Amino acid sequence: MKALVFKGPGQKDLVDCPMPVIKESTDVIVKLVKSTICGTDLHILKGDVPAVTPGRILGHEGIGIVEEIGDGVTNFKKGDKVLISCITSCGKCDNCKKQLYAHCDDGGWILGHLIDGTQAEYVRIPHGDNSLYHLKDDINEEAAVMLSDILPTGFEIGVLNGKVNPGDTVAIVGAGPIGIAALLTAQFFSPSKIIMVDVDQERLELSRSFGATDIVNSGNEDPIEAIKKIAGKEGVDVAIEAVGIPATFDICQKILKPGAHLANVGVHGKPVELHIEELWIRNVTITMGLVCASTTPMLLKNVESKKLQPEKLVTHRFDFTDMIHAYEVFGNASKEKALKVIINFN
Fold first, then answer.
1. pLDDT band at residue 337 under the 50/70/90 scheme
2. In this structure, what is the dihedral angle of CA atoms 57, 62, 64, 67, given to the nearest 10 degrees?
3. Which residues, 6+ apart, have CB-to-CB distance to 61 below 8 Å?
4. Is residue 156 a contact partner of residue 295, using CB atoms and an 8 Å limit?
5. Pairing verdict, β 62-69 and 81-84
6. How far apart are the first and last CA of the chain?
């Protein structure tokens, strides 16, 4: 089969690889139908995730058709259409029983990280009964791909960790895919204002169509002053960091009103400076984490009912044979005006 393989920092290739096989009774082999590229994949290529070793097939998102099941699988059968979660969970360990699936004793984020991932024609999914979700035949497949990672990540690590409440003022720093996912799902809780912050004016204008009430171009004006002009001089109730660089984290910690929450979603490859000498007296809460995907069933119901339409995030589509070009486009998102790309398998 063909697969996109990491060959070391800055190096990748579309090559022939062995077909995955059932290793454990709980394994499921899935034939990919659609996949995508995540910002985390770009971090891997930059060398920010040293646990990913050369030879690893990348990718942790996608939908497909069940090709083969292990003897211990009971929820799925050959031919089922399924959503692949970015998080693998056994469902039995202490962490899984607390819905802390990201820290499953025999799973977590392993696809495209510690085991071969979904940017391939076939993928092995450990603990298939707990790591896959049934999809209806008539579901929008592009919307379903967004449920593998970015929708639950933006919702759980951004909105839920940020404790967004009705009437809150929310600032989301970063209008990329994860920032937009947080924007879409923050609206479940009816905040009074959602301020999107970015340096890309086109992404900011697009965020208005997704429900942002206000936008701030941090490349053209002081973002802290601009946000406080909108939210009030004390700052915002919730700041969501959705980029993963020191500058955007710094913006977030400087716009917090007393009692506010800062929810860090971005993947940081470098240390940030925490101004604890200013924050301790303001009774703020700072959270961060890896998605557990515990909200995927709820989000899937909202996609099925079309109350959530994450397919609108898709800006580019590629055949799997054009995977290298897809990475080039996604890696130059601002120039190419890319949000999410869809990879189609024939």
1. very high
2. 30
3. 35, 36, 38, 84, 86, 118, 145, 148, 149
4. yes
5. antiparallel
6. 12
Dihedral, CA of residue 14, residue 19, residue 23 and residue 28, to nearest 10: 90
Rg (CA), the chain: 20
Instruction: Kindly tell me if the per-residue pLDDT of 269 is higher than 90.
Output: no
Q: Which residues, other chains included, contact 60 with Cβ-Cβ below 8 Å and sequence gap of 6+? A: 38, 40, 84, 86, 109, 111, 112, 113, 117, 118, 148, 149
| Local structure of 283: helix, strand or coil | coil
Within 255-295, residue ranges assigned H as helices are 276-279
Strand partners for 268: none
d(CA 213, CA 170): 10
Confirm if 240 and 179 have CB atoms less than 8 A apart: yes
pLDDT digits (tens, 9 = 90+) for 60-89: 999 999 999 999 999 999 999 999 999 999
84-120 pLDDT, tens per residue?
999 999 999 999 999 999 999 999 999 999 999 999 9
Reported as type and span, the H/E element at residue 180 is helix 177-186
Contact 194, 268 (CB under 8 A): no
pLDDT of residue 158: 98
pLDDT of 200-223, one tens digit each?
Answer: 999 999 999 999 999 999 999 999
Tell me the residue type at 304.
E
DSSP codes joined into one string, 14-54: EEE-PPP---STT-EEEEEEEEE--HHHHHHHHT--TTSPT
Tens digits of residue pLDDT in 179-205: 999 999 999 999 999 999 999 999 999
